[in-house]
Amino acid sequence: MSIENLSAVEIGRQIAAGKVSSVEVVKHFLNRIETFDNSVGAYVHVDGDRAIDRATSVDRDIKAGKVRAPLAGVPVAIKDVLCTSGVPTTCGSRMLENFVPPYTATCVSKLENASLVVLGKTNMDEFAMGGSTETSCHGLTRNPWDPERTAGGSSGGAAACLAAGMAPLSIGTDTGGSVRQPAAMCGVLGLKPTYGRVSRYGLVAFASSLDQVGALGHSVEDLAAVMEILAGHDPKDTTSLKTDVPAYRGLLEQDLKGVKVGLLRDQIDHSSLDPEIAAAVDRTRQQLEALGATISEVELPYTKYAVPTYYLVAPSEASGNLSRYDGVHYGYRADTSHSSDQTAPLDAMISASRSEGFGPEVKRRIMLGTFALSSGYYDAYYKKALKVRRLIAGDYQRAFEEADVLLGPMTPSPAFRLGEKVNDPVKMYLEDAFSVGANLAGLPGLSVPAGLTESGLPIGVQLQAPVLQEQRLLNVARSLEQAEFFKPALAPKYC
Amino acid sequence: MSLTADEVAKVAKLARLTFESEELEKFAGQLGKIVDFVDQLSEVDTEGVEEMAHPLDVDSVVRPDVVTEGLSRDESLANSPSHDGEHFLVPPVMAR
């Protein structure tokens, strides 16, 4: 079996057993990137020499018996919103086109300490604001399953590099679905952990009460193994939780007897849901039932307000977070020295830098957030949204009194056509109908592959669990995997 | 809710963004549509509901007051669009 068809854990096993070296594995993936990425656009920055150097030293450590980590020597792709010291980190924005961070995000340091090898940085919607990876200053990312379609977003590159076999494992971030939705559209697994489970230090901030680092992969064991590395408290992120990290991989359990699965009927009956996806959710339900789970229907009545709530909370936080881009300390600066109006030169420079450095969707969100926080509108919009957020979290709390995990659709439709929604903001926002609830409530969510549409596009279903119960998600997904409900699959063109 | 170009211009000033007049009209239309969309929250009865600014009930978190190393001056200045090796350089605040 060729390396790109192996799970990350299996690659790690073969490296540990000396069957293949990390350098060989890294070169294999670099070659595939060289061959295929022109037609996908998953990566924005690949530093092959750096990766090979790193793999060489990992190989040396393994040979010397200094390293025994399960994923030692395994390559990983990093979303370009996570800072990497000395390596450009652009967030898909002209604003940060030349930004080279002086420090590394904690999650990336942890991967490097566990002897994984960073292959490169993956494409995304500008500042992670979008669901289609069409707004990046580096150009768009195509779905390996159909080049005319989106890979999803904002972690489109993170999902596409997996589907095309250009990385065995990849790290994304999820503020409103940005790990789970592209995972669903590209036919891979995508986990958004509990808010605070993984350090956000070095993650370029979008919406601080929602942002979370997540992982994408081909197998449940891969996600469990990488979560053991990523999770845990970080003194540099005061919102990271001090709770102990379970041995996710060792605790993987596939017996579903006694597990209560709550079916999200409202979401399945949602008017915008594609019938093929509704059918996939139903197939998942049947499979879980056959495996011994108990199914009941649960309601989340307030989640129909999740999208409007999210589109007030997230842009409000974004408008504050992105005020740091002022053309002074780092980032793009416009040249206003020859401007005719020189009454307030500093202010003019700041406004011009922001107006030229940000793309239209980022500007829309900054404007919306500034509006929602402005005097006279604050109570009616921002404060109101925070109250509805409480009601949405309460919905989940009640649902989890009856169910251990929730099952529903991940996306309203399979991957849509490039260009279809990018100019219609509200249409694009409705893509997030099933994903933003978990972010608002801070819960973990997992997108699990659930077959293909008739036209051959991947479908994902979503599992959600209470705060810090990632293990439940992994276990349910594991049982589906063991029953061969889904299999790791590269897009046909890239097999 | 329709937003006038004047209202949008006011928000743009607060956000330190500038738009050409044509762009401003387009943005006013789009923002109006988005505001209409989020306006559906007004139908939710939130009487007595406490605001939820954060998903976790984490108390004020402080670390021990120990001096740790920060970025060096050179590292801090490295990404600046304009500096003199010691300071960030910016255009004058007011007209000369």
Tell me what the structure shows:
With 495 residues, chain A is α/β, with parallel strands linked by helices. Chain A has 16 helices and 13 strands. Chain A has helices at residues 8-16, 22-40, 48-63, 106-113, 156-163, 180-186, 220-230, 265-268, 275-290, 306-321, 345-357, 360-373, 379-402, 425-429, 436-441, 470-482, and strands at residues 43-46, 75-79, 117-122, 142-143, 146-150, 169-173, 189-192, 213-217, 260-264, 294-298, 405-409, 445-452, 458-464. In chain B, helix 1 (5-14) crosses helix 2 (21-38). Chains A and B meet through helix 10, helix 11, helix 12, helix 13 and helix 14 of A and helix 1 and helix 2 of B.
How is the biggest beta sheet of chain B arranged? Answer: none
End-to-end gap of chain A:
11 Å
Distance between the termini of chain B: 43 Å
**Overall strand count of chain A:** 13
Oligomer: heterodimer
Give start-end ranges of low-pLDDT stretches of chain B. none
Estimated share of beta-strand residues of chain B:
under 5%
| Element pattern of chain B in H and E | HHH
Q: Main sheet of chain A: which strands, in order across?
A: 1-3-2-6-8-7-12-13-11-9-10
CATH class of the domain at 3-257 and 447-494 in chain A reads Alpha Beta
What is the structural class of chain B?
Answer: mainly alpha
Number of helices of chain A: 16
Low-confidence stretches of chain A: none
Mean pLDDT of chain A: 97
The CATH H-level superfamily of the domain at 3-257 and 447-494 in chain A is: Amidase signature (AS) domain
Strand content of chain A: 5-15%
- Approximately how much helix is present in the residues of chain A? 25-40%
What's the helical proportion of residues of chain B?
Answer: 25-40%
